[in-house]
């Protein structure tokens, strides 16, 4: 009887502890513990996705947002000692950028689960153009919309906490819509965590075992790690998931994508630790996790106990794959360093990963070079029913060198088609390959030579010409995987990353 009771306690706390891992890095399923064993109203909730079921036949699409804010969820400054421990500056630094964006997908039948990290500096289209900005880094949608809402409310005489919380909800809604459009998925629920929540959770469970490939130091984040496996404190844990440079050895050439893989490795390492250590048998620590969740986590209203149990059980059960979306290249837009991305390939890759099928190999383009893209003007018609799809596609194509044409909406249709003047057939084929597998071409004599039109349909694009091969996120030797590669880290053990 005693052994059976002990087993129930271990299982219960394993689910709580496993869920807490998401909070430690990207924010929030630890709130599951607060929901299940304490007053449900003690965890802050948002009505942004009101009326949206957390789970459908297609499964669960949970967006985890980690903010770089140096204030609490009420906008108040943090204690000085926490700023010193965070090594990130005080409340005057940072803002409401979503520096961590991770989609957790669990299939409708519960047979597979994936985590997809989106690099924070991916240059994307913003639905609705918050604060007058129609394009920017994907992390910025939150802050832009929050700022716009704050000014609108101020003009109406609404101030204080009422204005602040409404502004935060506007930011959440904008970030969700931006990710929804970028990945081509329907976000069904969300969890938000601030930087201080990560630090406080890590304080509860420290020390934490991690592994890096090389000795590395970053005086900006406070990172100072030696090659191999090591145990780190809460303050070092924050540096581990934030490091994006090496100030002693710049040749290591850290990128935002390396930071995404650090976050994934941290989740996996902590899962391994919590399953094998006495952390789960320590009621003081599990109550500590719950206490942090009540103060610094925000959940969508539809994340009820049942939904959170399902997510926690999948994390605890193993077999979860963490992917990092690739980029095309690094670039500069309006003086800002950004990640240039292929929006069509991103959506095709996301659709492939969520389907549960392995990512296919990417076949090389034909040997004969296509016509120069700069010779062609491309217009985009949105017949997909997805708001903002045309703007996102146009942005992707101009980033590849095509001249920008017009964007607009058209009657819904299934197929994605490239229309072209009969003299531009080769260019149409090249553009179709760029847009994604499944794209067809159709001659249209009414178009002038050098004019191409992409009509986006409802059918998802995919196939060997649009989805890259997944490579190991722990591979690539000293330099790590290339930024153009889709990377995959399997759960289990302590992954050694750049």
From TrEMBL:
InterPro entries tied to this protein: LytR/CpsA/Psr_C, LytR/CpsA/Psr_CW_biosynth, LytR_CpsA_psr
Protein's name in the database: LytR family transcriptional regulator
Family indicated by similarity: Belongs to the LytR/CpsA/Psr (LCP) family.
Organism name: Flexivirga caeni
Domain Cell envelope-related transcriptional attenuator: 97-275
Region of interest (Disordered), ranges: 355-376
Occurrences of domain LytR/CpsA/Psr regulator C-terminal (ranges): 375-458
Domain of life per record: Bacteria
């Amino acid at each position: 009887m005693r052994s059976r009771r002990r087993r129930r306690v271990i299982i219960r706390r394993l689910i709580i502890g496993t869920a807490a891992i998401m909070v430690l890095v990207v924010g929030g399923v630890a709130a599951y513990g607060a929901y299940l064993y304490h007053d449900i109203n003690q965890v802050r909730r948002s009505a942004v996705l009101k009326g949206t079921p957390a789970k459908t036949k297609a499964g669960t699409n949970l967006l985890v947002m980690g903010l770089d804010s140096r204030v609490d969820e009420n906008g108040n400054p943090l204690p000085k000692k926490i700023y010193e421990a965070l090594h990130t500056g005080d409340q005057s630094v940072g803002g409401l950028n979503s520096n961590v964006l991770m989609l957790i997908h669990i299939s409708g039948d519960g047979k597979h689960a994936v985590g997809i990290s989106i690099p924070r500096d991916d240059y994307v289209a913003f639905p609705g153009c918050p604060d007058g900005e129609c394009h920017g880094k994907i992390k910025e949608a939150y802050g832009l919309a929050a700022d716009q809402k704050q000014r609108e409310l101020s003009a109406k005489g609404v101030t204080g906490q009422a204005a602040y919380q409404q502004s935060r909800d506007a930011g959440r809604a904008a970030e969700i819509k931006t990710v929804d459009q970028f990945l081509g998925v329907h976000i069904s629920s969300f969890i938000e965590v601030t930087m201080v929540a990560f630090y406080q959770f890590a304080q509860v469970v420290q020390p934490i075992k991690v592994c890096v490939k090389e000795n590395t130091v970053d005086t900006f984040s406070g990172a100072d790690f030696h090659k191999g496996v090591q145990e780190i404190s809460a303050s070092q844990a924050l540096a581990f998931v934030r490091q994006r440079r090496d100030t002693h050895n710049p040749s290591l050439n850290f990128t935002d994508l390396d930071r995404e893989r650090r976050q994934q490795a941290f989740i996996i390492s902590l899962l391994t630790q919590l399953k094998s250590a006495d952390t789960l048998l320590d009621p003081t620590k599990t109550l500590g996790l719950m206490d942090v969740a009540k103060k610094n986590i925000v959940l969508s209203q539809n994340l009820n106990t049942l939904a959170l149990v399902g997510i926690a059980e999948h994390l605890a059960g193993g077999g979860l794959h963490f992917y990092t979306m690739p980029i095309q290249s690094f670039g500069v837009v309006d003086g800002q360093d950004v990640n240039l991305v292929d929006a069509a390939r991103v959506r095709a890759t996301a659709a492939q990963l969520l389907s549960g099928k392995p990512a296919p190999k990417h076949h090389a383009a034909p040997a004969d070079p296509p016509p120069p893209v700069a010779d062609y003007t491309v217009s985009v018609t949105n017949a997909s029913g997805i708001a903002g799809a045309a703007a996102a596609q146009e942005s992707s194509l101009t980033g590849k060198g095509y001249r920008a044409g017009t964007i607009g909406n058209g009657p819904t249709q299934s197929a994605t088609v490239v229309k072209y003047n009969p003299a531009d057939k080769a260019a149409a084929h090249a553009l179709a390959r760029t847009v994604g597998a499944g794209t067809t071409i159709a001659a249209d004599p009414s178009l002038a030579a050098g004019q191409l039109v992409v009509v986006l349909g409802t059918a998802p694009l995919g196939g060997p010409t649009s989805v890259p091969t997944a490579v190991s996120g722990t591979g690539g030797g000293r330099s790590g995987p290339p930024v153009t590669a889709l990377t995959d880290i399997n759960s289990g053990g302590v992954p050694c990353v750049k």
